[in-house]
Amino acid sequence: MAEQRRPGANPPPFESPEFETDSGRAVTPREVPTYPPGNVLSAPPRPRVPPGQAPAAPGGPARPPSAPSAPERRPIGPSPFLERRAPSSPSPEARRVIANLPTEQLPPVPGELRRPAPQVPSMDLAAVPLEKRTAPPVPTLDLPSVIVDQRRTAPPVPTSELPPVPVEPRRPTSGAPVPERRMTGTMRRAAVGEGGGAAGSAAFWPAQPRTLADTGLTATMVEELVLKAIFFAGEMRGMDIANRLKLPSAIIDEVVEGLRRQKYIDIRGGGGSGVGKSTMIYQLTTFATDVLRQILDRNRYNGPAPVSLQEWIEVVKKQTVRGNRITRQRMEDKFGDLIIRDYIFDGIGPAMNSGRAIFFYGPPGNGKTAICQGMVNCFDGEIFIPHAILIDDFVVRIFDSILHKPIEDDESTQPYDRRWVRCRRPLVVVGGELTLEMLDLVYSPEVKYYEAPFQMKATNGMLLIDDFGRQKVSPKELLNRWIVPLESDVDMLTLHTGKKVQVPFDVFAAFSTNLEPSDLVDDAFLRRVRYKLEVQPPDEDLFHQIFEVMCRKRGVAYDADMVQYLIDTHYKPMGRRFAACQPRDLLDQVIDMAHYRGMAPQLDQELIDSAVRSYFVRFDKEQQR
User: Fold this and answer.
1) Measuring CA to CA, which residue among 557, 563, 510 is closest to residue 541?
2) Which of 256, 261, 264 is nearest to 284 (CA)?
């Protein structure tokens, strides 16, 4: 039974013909369906009427010709609607219905009424040269021209009303300086200057690391240091571990927490809740026994975390001892009460500004070592020396509490990486005990880490080879060891594995001898040591000045007549030569004998005679013979 619909209800939807649902068949003109009467789309196609002539109405008179209308403007390209429309224009009512219908519900157009596509002549592409194979020209349409001047444009906006551009997205224009890339890791440093700063300042200031990546070390290296620290101490608090490794507590807490998750360490006790992990006491577990045995077999270094070799090399360049600007006035202030002749100032001043080696020679006891100690004080600023460095996973200890003099921090000192020690420029003095083995990395099989040689500990400072020529090794072999570093500022060290390591030789080297120089050095050495200075013994006037200075330091009243008695009685008759160290030594003898006799130290004939007999006893025996 057909469906009954009430009046005014929506019309039934348009049902597509059956041939559109059958995708396996092809539409032919004979299969065009018929439409029921009354449908606006069921009218048969009308014959095409020539332009200017009105079509004849069925059953009525012909309409007069209408005035020609403007040509219809059509869009560019094919349109599905234009291909489906009938040859004659439908009525306005039909146009509204068609316009509201979806494209897929439009009826098909018979094949004989479809407009065939224009014939495109075929071309033999192989016969056309490549330079002539171009696209066919696009025909221009008779569209109304658009005048550019009459196009509507937005009014210009004043520059002052434009929103500001953020600084970050701006790109540097060509020729403009590119902003410097921000340094990360252990290389973030607040440098004051290159090659030495002002007096009392540091040319390099190590920034305190915030993360493990800033230290330049791997997590495994820090974990091994933590395990060894707890092993040698038995148990440690978190803050004690950070103090031992010289790393911030935040980094240590992160590493300790990782070791706890691996069950290598455990908490034995600590403060109350809310105090923090730094107060917790940690100890090793049984799971760490095998791991710790492997770590100790590799090295037993237990101390501050090392810095990388590359970072140390870059810091040495910033703290170099070369290229100073030292004047005569500054040297006089830095040498203090040391009595030095003018020719010595004129000889050591240019040598210190160059930072190259200098060779002292002359009789013993005339202040060659004291001169070198005063020279170190003339260099600018402070330096930072690492506790240890890392070379191919081997720890090399550099800081020496005997040779390096740390500077105590005050309230105004800004934080820095505690793996570095703020020190004065070092003066390393080696004498007759020096051997060739001491000039290379010293490896200890017991602790399995290296001790830096003397010249490496004297980096950015001064190295004095005293009593040159009296070492166990021959002077020729010792000079051959120094020839390359003195000329190229690079020293070659050897690991126990046989590998050669190149390290900087930024040292102001000084050679001092009281032997005949012609018996010790050759032309090759003299060419590389540019500055040579003879330290001569003092004369009588200078001897008086040195005696006066030493009496003031020892708290003894100075008596010029007693000093002259010493010279006239014990020097001139014996033919003894003056030496700069003798006033100090004789005065110390006088003070010791006065204390023994229960009297105040003073310069009198009896005490002076007793001091001379004790001090020059060897010379008196030779004279008695």
Assistant:
1) 563
2) 264
Q: What is the pTM of this model?
A: 0.64
Separation CA 265–CA 247 (nearest Å): 19
Best CA proximity match to 343, nearest among 371, 322, 385, 306: 371
According to DSSP, residue 186 is labeled G
C-alpha span between 9 and 349 (Å, rounded): 116
Q: Which residues are CB-contacts of 158 (< 8 A; sequence separation ≥ 6)?
A: none
Q: Which helix (H) or strand (E) holds 569?
A: helix 560-570
Confidence (pLDDT) at 491? 94
SS3 readout for 332-374: HHHCCCCCCCHHHHHHHHHHHHHCCCEEEECCCCCCHHHHHHH
Query: Is beta strand 383-386 parallel, antiparallel or unpaired with respect to 281-284?
Result: unpaired
Q: Cβ(460)–Cβ(425) under 8 Å?
A: yes
Task: Write down the pLDDT at residue 248.
Answer: 94
Contact 483, 524 (CB under 8 A): yes
Distances from the Cα of 28 to the Cα of 86, 108, 563, angstroms: 17, 10, 143
Q: What is the mean pLDDT of each run of 10 residues along the chain (625 residues)?
A: 46 47 45 46 50 49 48 48 47 62 55 53 44 44 38 44 43 41 38 36 82 93 95 92 94 93 86 64 93 93 95 94 83 80 88 88 86 83 93 94 91 91 92 88 92 94 89 85 88 91 93 85 79 90 93 93 94 90 93 93 92 76 46
Give the CA distances from residue 62 to residues 66, 377, 537, in Å, rounded to whole numbers and listed in that order. Answer: 12, 126, 147
Closest by CA to 262, choosing from 236, 290, 304, 240, is 290
Place of tokens 């068949």: 25
- Amino acid sitting at position 150: Q
Cβ neighbors of 76 (< 8 A, separation 6 or more) are 141
Segment 212-215 long-range contacts (CB within 8 Å, at least 24 positions apart) = 212/251, 212/254, 212/255, 213/184, 213/185, 214/184, 214/185, 214/186, 214/188, 215/185, 215/186, 215/247, 215/251, 215/305, 215/419
Give ∠ CA 70-71-75 in degrees, rounded to 5: 130
Burial of 132 (0-12, 13-18, 19+ CB in 10 A): exposed
| C-alpha torsion angle, residues 192, 197, 203, 205 (rounded to 10) | -60
Euclidean distance between CA atoms 608 and 591, whole angstroms: 10
Is residue 210 within 8 Å of residue 203, measured between CB atoms? Answer: no
Query: What is the per-residue pLDDT for 376?
Result: 84
Per DSSP, the three-state class of 389 is strand
- The CA-CA-CA angle for residues 419, 424, 425, to 5°, reads 105
CB burial of residue 503 (10 Å; 0-12, 13-18, 19+): buried
Q: For the chain, what percentages of helix, strand and coil (3-state, to nearest 5) are there?
A: 35, 10, 50
What's the pLDDT score for residue 25? Answer: 45
What string of DSSP letters covers 404-471? --B----TTPPP--TTEEEEPPPEEEE-TT--SGGGS-EEETTTTEEE--HHHHTTTSEEEE-STT-S
Residue type, 239: M
- Residue 110 has what pLDDT? 55
C-alpha–C-alpha distance, residues 452 and 455, integer Å: 8
CB count within 10 Å of CB 56 equals 13
β-pair type (427-430, 462-465): parallel
